[in-house]
Amino acid sequence: MNICFINPPFKSEYGKFSRESRSPSIGHSGVLYYPLWLIYAAAVAEKNGYNIAFIDAPAKRLNKEQTLERVKNEMPNADLFVLDTSTPSIYSDVAFADTLKGIYPESKVMLVGTHPSATDVETMNISPSVDYIARQEYDYIVLNTVRMLEGKLKIEEVDGLTYRSAEGEILRNKNAEHISDLDAIPMAAPFIKKYLDVKDYVFPAASYPAVQIFTGRGCPAHCNYCVYPQTMHGHKYRLRNPESVVAEFEYIADNFPEVHEVVIEDDTFTANKARVLEICRLLREKKLHKRLKWLCNARVNIDLETLKEMKKSGCHLIIPGIESYNQEILDNIKKGSTLKFIDNYIANAKKAKLLIHACYMVGNKGETRETMERTLNAALKFKTDTAQFFPLIPYPGTEAFEWAKSNGYISGKYEDYVQEDGTLNCVLNLPDLSAEDLVEFCAYARKKYYMRPWYIAHRLWMGIKHPSDLKRSLKAFKRLKSSLFSKDKKNKG
Prior knowledge:
Layout: E1 2-7, H1 36-47, E2 51-56, H2 64-74, E3 80-84, H3 90-103, E4 108-112, H4 114-118, H5 120-124, E5 132-134, H6 139-149, E6 161-164, E7 170-172, H7 188-195, E8 211-213, E9 216-217, H8 227-233, E10 238-239, H9 242-255, E11 261-264, H10 273-285, E12 293-297, H11 304-312, E13 315-319, E14 321-323, H12 327-332, H13 339-351, E15 355-362, H14 369-382, E16 386-391, H15 399-406, H16 435-450, H17 453-465, H18 467-485
Parallel strand pairs: 1-2, 1-3, 3-4, 4-5, 8-11, 11-12, 12-13, 13-15, 14-15, 15-16
Antiparallel strand pairs: 5-6, 6-7, 9-10
């Protein structure tokens, strides 16, 4: 059996579409995430003896014709095509499935990702070319679908699968259990080494090039806007063991001489303190902290002891979703944090000498011009290394989407989620804050944050202390300057 995994082309004429970012788009900063969920599923299939091809079209800015040429050269005899998807690109992704089906009518086509997981029947109804949808975590759903095609399983036995009956009726098997043994899934880094080029991927907060990995799945928090826990991985944080995580660091250190940083993409890496401390201990024991630095997402309830241990073990930057400096809004979005938590987090991170990339969001329930200004004032006061300001982007399958849709704050049209050039589009229009208001505020906030004398002096000082940081800063500024100085008032996020 031959399986061809494809991250499909989308708006390649404008740049690299980062489909696996939490807000899929072509970013001003040049960001491109690794298609990690597709990577893990492909690695599981390969581990189980299946012949695979892996094509990441956005990484090489391949258009439709170039991607089809790769398919023709690498796996024209695929029994199953597995296509990654996203909300903004869903109609393009299905159209690509149509094209594949037209060229390879005997092959089966499966869609995966957050969007079809949340809208499986609706997505199946877009085109008969879509044979299957694998809902939620799909590593073993892909594997079991191939086993079904081999006659080893009945189609009704493939949990998590949405498919068509012989009569064309759309059927849904029961949900698959979330994967508990994550150590049974191959590491991403060896797969990246074999099939991809690390220089194609950019994570602006990290040194270039970097490798992204996951050390766990799921998130214990219940933020109403966060798409992956609500559509893919659930709220139980399932963990790889510390030895496995450190072994992947070791592999990266030994096999990627050009890589000096690891990006841990877990929604909340720091949720389990004992495990974090054990990973830190092992990194130091193997002296990997001298070879690789790393960053991670870290909720604002982390304590000073853990932050200090992380710093000693090579962590240099943490990313909190602060979102708002208004308690009512934090409660409305089920953030599970308080203003006191936020204040302590900033203070403790600075005591631990960790850099912070702070994430702020406007447009949630309860937002007003006054609450946005208060959040910006807090951001200016915190003086974190970097900060981002974005409007809420409600995606299908999230509580935020249901709230916005039921109140008429969004159109629900998926093509509205990005501009013609693939950059983010604000789809939210609140009674007292239009999409244009939210976008203008974010642009104003970025400019006020980054163009003040303190920040310019901070960046110069960081560059003097760490020349590699100066290089990163200059690259980031080059990418961002158009949005910092643009007078264009289109609805760009």
